[in-house]
Specification:
The protein has 276 residues and is an alpha/beta fold. The chain contains ten helices and nine strands. Strands 4-5-9-6-7-8 form a six-stranded mixed sheet, with helices on one face. The radius of gyration is 20 Å and the shape is globular.
């Protein structure tokens, strides 16, 4: 059984004092500071993925992640490393529908886990070659009138939005904003201000983080601010010309306008498919 566990779920491992026999941490970025008082507390929650391991268990860490060294020094079991930027057979080949440095890092982590389980390189390459991505994470929903509509609702942090912006080609109309998690928008602001940025327009979703976003990003690219999601999607579609992408990558949590991030993604997909 392979599980992806959030920090919230990992907290529950205290009750059974058990960690997975094999654990992996892809990376650790600042998040959920509306729940944890500081980054150290967030790290402690993540630490539970290996804290209850035995000496014969394994922990796989990202060689280029700043927080991994701290994890490595306290792991009770065997520590192994993966390099997020290693070239992988099958990744980014012609016809591939997914790419980007963050996806390469994820693929390298998965490949390292597969190797440690004795899976052959040929099988790993074939799996990577045939993988088409997952829903809600840079999911290409539709190409309509020459515009790509991309659902990245799982991007609930500014860092995740920055990763999406670096992966999507062509001009971008960005759907941004939502509920505040107390995160720093500095990196996102720098990405949007970069002369190489392809973001031509920003359509904001109402939420507790949106005032702070506007204060950080400025009004220059902002074309609208909406409490009704259909209005936001409609405006974004009107702003996007042929060859552009409408990218839902909010950089914020979904609560307020939506039940959760997946509700936000499902509504986006339905609205995009209803465009005529």
């Amino acid at each position: 059984m392979i599980l992806e566990l959030s920090s919230f779920q990992l907290e529950g491992l205290d009750a059974i004092r058990t960690s997975p026999r094999t654990a992996a941490v892809t990376n650790l970025m600042v998040d959920h500071l509306n729940r944890y008082p500081d980054m150290a507390s967030y790290m402690d929650a993540k630490r539970r993925i290996f804290m209850y391991q035995g000496s014969g268990d394994g922990l796989l860490l990202n060689r280029h992640d700043a927080y991994s060294e701290a994890f490595a020094t306290t792991a009770p079991g065997r520590v192994e490393w993966f390099r997020p930027d290693d070239a992988l057979v099958g990744f980014g080949e012609p016809g591939s529908t997914w790419g980007g440095s963050h996806n390469l890092a994820n693929a390298n982590c998965a490949a390292a886990l597969a190797r440690s389980s004795g899976i052959a390189e040929e099988a790993i390459a074939e799996a990577i070659r045939g993988f088409a991505g997952v829903p809600y994470r840079q999911e290409v929903v539709r190409v309509h009138r020459g515009v790509r509509y991309i659902n990245d609702t799982a991007a609930t942090t500014p860092d995740a939005t920055v990763a999406a912006l670096s992966s999507v080609s062509g001009p971008i109309v960005l759907l941004l904003g939502g509920a505040d998690k107390g995160l720093d928008f500095t990196g996102l602001v720098a990405s949007l201000a970069d002369p190489r940025s392809r973001v031509t327009d920003i359509v904001l979703l109402e939420g507790s983080a949106t005032d702070r976003l506007v204060a950080s990003v400025g009004e220059g690219l902002v074309r609208g601010r909406h409490r009704a999601f259909p209005d936001a999607v409609t405006q974004a579609s009107q702003l996007a010309g042929s060859g552009a992408a409408v990218l839902l990558s909010p950089g914020c949590a979904s609560f307020g306008m939506f039940v959760n991030e997946f509700d936000r993604g499902d509504q986006f997909n339905a609205l995009v498919h209803a465009l005529d």
